[in-house]
Design a protein that fits this description.
CATH class: Alpha Beta
CATH architecture: 3-Layer(aba) Sandwich
CATH superfamily: Gcn5-related N-acetyltransferase (GNAT)
Number of strands: 8
Shape: globular
Strand order of the largest sheet: 1-2-3-4-5-6-8-7
Number of domains: 1
Strand content: 25-35%
Structural class: alpha+beta
Order of helices and strands: EEHHHEEEHEHEE
Helix content: 25-40%
Number of helices: 5
């Protein structure tokens, strides 16, 4: 089901809702993008434990059926190159309003960075949040992910707090909590 055609030529980009038929490809792209983004900040065993606990077909199957969550796939030239997950009405520490969305995941394969695809996928999610009467979007991002931080700051997010993102029992990464009020 096609949900959005951006300013790009419609043959080049599309954003679609995840269906059960997409779970294998979603799982593969999700693991690959996570490793590209975080694989160098913990040992291989810890990363694999995290993926095994959080990035499985069964977990994605359960999550796509959650009524307040929306997974979207990003295709570029008919190739799945990224995905996002947004959770609506997800209150956050450090934010007083309650009707806000959490951008839980937004990942693009490294080979497709720099094409404006992340901005397209982000804008799609922001518009979804506004349609659901959300007052803003919040997220966590690893403090060493300078590219992501620059991207979110370009989108007008502000750092409002911190969070330890647990990879394993012995490894966690410090994250910024960021917020964009509408």
């Amino acid at each position: 089901m096609l949900l959005s055609i951006s300013n790009f030529d419609s043959r080049m980009i599309r954003i679609e809702k995840v269906g059960h038929e997409d779970l294998a490809e979603l799982t593969s792209v999700a693991k690959e993008t996570f490793i590209q983004s975080h694989g160098h900040n913990a040992n291989t065993a810890d990363i694999q434990l995290y993926l095994d606990a959080n990035y499985t077909r069964d977990i994605f199957k359960a999550e796509i059926n959650q009524p307040n969550a929306a997974y979207r796939l990003l295709f570029y030239k008919n190739e799945m190159v990224g995905y996002s997950k947004i959770v609506f009405d997800q209150p956050a520490a450090n934010v007083e309003v309650k009707n806000i969305a959490k951008l839980a995941r937004i990942y693009i394969l490294e080979a497709f960075h720099g094409l404006g695809l992340g901005e397209e996928l982000f804008n799609f999610n922001m518009n979804q949040a506004k349609e659901k009467n959300q007052a803003g979007i919040w997220l966590f991002t690893w403090i060493e992910n300078k590219r992501a931080i620059r991207f979110y700051e370009k989108m007008a997010f502000k750092i409002i707090g911190s969070h330890d993102f647990r990879i394993s029992e012995t490894h966690s990464n410090p994250n910024h909590q960021m917020y964009l009020a509408f």
